[in-house]
Amino acid sequence: MAQLEAEQAADVALFAATGGSARSVAAELALELSMTERRTGADVALAQALTTRLPATFAAFQRGEIDGFKARMIFEPTIALSDEMARQVDAIVATRLTGKNPSSLRAAVNRVVQKVDAEGYERRSRARRRDRSVCLVHQDETMSTLLCDLPVEQASAIYTSLDHQARKLRRGGESRTLDQLRSDVLVDRLLNRAPGESGIKPVVYVYVDLLTLAGLNEDPAELSGCGTVPAWLARALAADSGVS
Fold it and tell me: Are 108 and 78 in contact (CB under 8 A)?
């Protein structure tokens, strides 16, 4: 399967070299493969890098020693590098592929990038730290994902603190899982409420009809910025009773 992926990457690179602008190539591939242009654009960039800047990685890919996902783990940290530096990283990483899962491979590549381009890595690191942010992504079944891009030492300290408190609660007889406890401790801290305190204090707008609010029907309600939510959740939020 990896060898077939490598063949496809070679075909994509060839098409990109003859098919016009990067945008038009991505658009044609997206139409042909029933994928988004963003995804095909990323695939084109990977294929071009493998066939030009990362020959050792591409050779390992063609031999089936790594798959497309691992190839991407090598490619992405080298995007900001010059061709010469990318080839240096490629040559070194090619000797360190054995026995590595995608995460450990990515970490190994980053270590090599730091050595090959120490000044550039420091400059990019400072820029990335200025891009710290928080993002809310609504999911299905009344769940959402809160994403935080933070400096590594801050994110590590936050998680360690949450984990420490969660394990302390577990030792005290809590029946909730560690994942649930870490999540609940985070919510308690961010909403500035005592553990177990009910109610979501910041304003959340829920649009619900009166009959549903009264429990006389089960029509979905509308949570501002999210979409529809079940009637039971709307009533719980309206009553400020805490939700679990």
Answer: no
Q: What local confidence, expressed as pLDDT, does residue 124 receive?
A: 93
pLDDT at res. 65: 95
Q: Which two tokens stand for residue 211?
A: 């009959």
With a threshold of 0.85, does the pTM exceed it?
A: no
Residue 38 CB partners (closer than 8 Å, separation 6+) = none
Q: How many other C-beta atoms are found inside a 10 Å radius of the C-beta of residue 240?
A: 12
Q: Is 172 helix (H, G, I), strand (E, B) or coil?
A: coil
Alpha carbon of residue 13 to chain centroid: 26
Q: How far is CA 213 from CA 7, 42, 92, 206, 232, in A?
A: 59, 47, 64, 11, 9
Which pair of structure tokens corresponds to residue 118? 């120490």
Which residues, including other chains, have CB under 8 Å from residue 1's CB and lie 6 or more apart?
64, 67
Nearest one of 52, 69, 51 to 7, comparing CA atoms: 51
